[in-house]
Amino acid sequence: MNTLNTLRFRRTALAVATAAVLPFALAACSDSGSGSGKDSAAGAAAAASAGASSPDADASAPMTSDGPFGAACAGVPKEGAGSFDGMAKDPVATAASNNPALSTLVAAVKQAGLVDTLNNAKDITVFAPTNDAFAKIPKADLDKVLADKATLTKILTYHVVGEKLTPKQLENGSFATLETGKVTTAGSGESYKVNGTSNVVCGNVPTANATVYIVDTVLMPK
Questions:
Q1: Distances (CA, A) of 105 to 101, 176, 183
Q2: Does residue 146 contact residue 152 with C-beta atoms inside 8 Å?
Q3: 38, 98, 156, 181: which has the fewest C-beta neighbours closer than 10 Å?
Q4: What is the dihedral of CA 77, 81, 86, 92, to 10 degrees?
């Protein structure tokens, strides 16, 4: 009887021990598999993150084409009010006054009394002739125009479009001007012409209220 009880006791103890050990073993296996899954998930997340960073970098690359372009842009000051950053903070007439290459245009704008008109306009495009562009006009003719406010105003407002134009829009465009005439544009990349004769030498320059395309020939309304 004692022997039988002893055997029963041993069997019961073995069963209890097995029942106690088995969950820990299963938990260990589960933790091991879970850890492996976490590692895999972490690796996948890292790979996804790395993969995602490449398109972001690629997407940021074309951003340079959204900024100013053209050979004459090299002559713009790197710092100060006349730099691209400085011009972006000022309205267009003020911004132009800080660019030495546009001093003749600025003088003409002042002569015509258009400083406030341009500075207070919203979302416009200005085709801004350089000093060299004005120098192509015989001095006697230029002096005559500068002395005639009505004619000067007509010419200057012909250089202003009532919307901000992107380089893409210039590829094949026709736009109404503040003077009520039209200018045509054509080109691609960093090469554009206005009215078929005036070259954009520094384009897509931002100011506080306008986009400026600096051109090498004064545009004449019909």
A1: 9, 21, 18
A2: yes
A3: 38
A4: -110
Joined together, the tokens standing for residue 140 give 């006697």
CA 144 – CA 150 distance, rounded (Å) = 11
Distance CA 210, CA 157 (A): 14
Contact of 71 with 215, CB cutoff 8 Å: no
CB contact set of 196 (below 8 Å; sequence gap of 6+): 184, 186
DSSP strands (E only) in 35-152: 124-129
pTM reported for the whole predicted model: 0.71
Q: Is 69 exposed, middle or buried (0-12, 13-18, 19+ CB in 10 A)?
A: buried
Distance CA 123, CA 103 (A): 23
Q: What is the amino acid identity at position 24?
A: F
- Please state, in angstroms and rounded to a whole number, the distance separating the CA atoms of residues 87 and 83: 6
Q: Return d(Cα 84, Cα 186) in angstroms, integer.
A: 24
40-49, 84-93, 169-178, range with the lowest pLDDT: 40-49
Whole-angstrom distance, CA of residue 85 vs CA of residue 89: 7
Per-residue pLDDT tens digits for 18-61? 444 333 333 333 344 444 444 444 444 443 333 333 333 333 33
Identify the H or E element spanning 174.
strand 172-176
- Six-digit token string for 187: 């080109």
pLDDT at 152 over 80: yes
Tell which residue, 180, 161, 149, has the closest CA to residue 121: 161
